[in-house]
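Subgroup meeting minutes
Present: P.N., E.W., G.H.
Scribe: E.W.

1. P.N. recapped why we're keeping a running log of single-chain structure predictions: easier to compare across weeks, and new members can see raw inputs and outputs side by side.
2. G.H. added today's entry (364 aa).
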Amino acid sequence: MAARTKDHYEVLGVAENASADEIKKAYRKLAKKYHPDANPGDQAATEKFKEVSEAHGVLSDPAKRRKYDQVRKYGGLGAFTTGPAGRNDGGGFKFEDLSDIGGGIGDMFSSIFDFGKKPKEKKGPTRGRNIEYLVEVSLRTAARGGKVKVTVPISEECANCDGSGAAPGTELEACSECGGKGEVTFGQGGFSVRRPCPACLGRGMTPKTPCSSCSGRGQVRTKKRISVRVPRGVDSGQKVRLSGQGERGPGGGPAGDLVIKFEVKPHRFFTREGLHLACEVPVNMAQAILGSKIKVKTIDGKKVVLKIPPGTQSGTTFRIPGQGIHRKEQRGDQLVRVYVKTPDLSDEGRKAVEELAATEGMRH
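Output recorded in log:
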């Protein structure tokens, strides 16, 4: 009788409603415990590491996990014990036969376990990984655009070994774990999942003598300083993609992209309201009652003269056209909200206000 397929949730020791973080935490703990590097020569640990990697590969992918959970609903994976060519030992069962069941179960098995498919031929060097990096910019830079210098942590090919992972003067050999294929297949019977080989990191070759600079990985962590153009009117959460500025691909492959995500820092004087910039400016009682002219700072650091008419009430908003956020052909305004600041009066001042109140019929 063929072996029963192990349940991925049981392999990781998590509940079927476990969160993504719980799955990741369980995987890291088990992968560290059973990794071949930590258990040299221990075949049982190697097999356990494969099971853990297989389970994580399915459950960490939301789409594959959703399909896997659907499959478990139809009797559980253990009900499908498989022999050669995807048949069970009961005779005559084919995964294609599941296509008549609602939800396309046959397609679900194909997308999760890749059974019956030949490995795709590798077409040239692999493209490097994309990187996303958060960049904080001032409100002034966001409003008017500009350039900022950023230093991005990135992986680069090791200069000491030219990315091979082997110490200079030594050779590479075919990986004993994957036989030089660069990937391993996890599973039993007709179920299989292909993953990059954990021993050679998908390269198919391992160094006889690891490079002392990169410990055989072929890459080192470094920092890349670049200039980033900030679009006018950018807001927090918006992104720009810099093609070819990500990590370099292994074996001379093309670099991935660098995705810059902007975060606009709060300003001590201005607040953003769409394309408008709002601020609050105090005026004294005499200015509010009699009218006045005050100077108001703009986001560019300049000062604009604003006329306060007589009888201005606290909370009145004045508009300075064109001094807000610029985005393409649009320009916001600067909104100036004035509030009347009440002073601490001397005896003479208090007497004058009381006389004013009596004259104007104001109650107090």
